[in-house]
Specification:
The protein contains two helices and eight strands. The protein is an alpha/beta fold and 156 residues long. Strands 7-1-4-3-2-6-5-8 form an eight-stranded mixed β-sheet, with no helix packed on it.
């Protein structure tokens, strides 16, 4: 009798652990939050997308308003083209700007939308012209070190 009670508790803890792992996997995989099946797509071209990935969140004022649907390289303009699907509940002016931002110092990257002041709204298939590429940490450190080397090499 006592052996079956121990087996039951072990089974409960193993099941709880598996459920916890499933929830964690869904959180990491960005499977939760906004459903963007009903929405519109917009595109934006960037010089550098850094570590941005498909399914990354699109946020405005910290609220998830959409997801990155596709990332491709455009051979004509030699820039990365990002296609985003925005939930139909959220409307943005045509002169809005998009930036690739990072959660924390070394966190995941996402796209931030800053609304403009135009009365016309973005529609399905529109392109956002005002973009700011990702800040690549290695490039910033290299520029800082190069600047310090140039200061030290000038000599008085």
């Amino acid at each position: 009798m006592q052996r079956t009670t121990v087996d039951l508790w072990v089974g409960i803890f193993v099941t709880a652990g598996l459920i916890g792992l499933l929830v964690l996997a869904l959180k990491v995989g960005n499977a939760s939050s906004v459903s963007v099946s009903d929405g519109y797509t917009i595109t934006a071209d960037f010089d550098n997308i850094g570590g941005l990935k498909a399914r990354a969140p699109v946020k405005s004022a910290g609220v998830v308003v959409g997801r990155v649907e596709q990332i491709a390289f455009d051979n004509e303009v030699l820039r990365a083209r990002v296609i985003m699907r925005i939930d139909k509940r959220y409307e943005f002016p045509k002169d809005s700007s998009v930036s690739i931002l990072t959660s924390g110092l070394l966190g995941d990257q996402f796209i931030g939308i800053d609304g403009g002041g135009d009365v016309e709204l973005l529609k399905d298939g529109d392109r956002v012209r005002l973009t700011q590429s990702a800040i690549v940490l290695e490039k910033v450190i290299g520029q800082f070190l190069y600047g310090k080397a140039a200061e030290g090499g000038s000599g008085d």
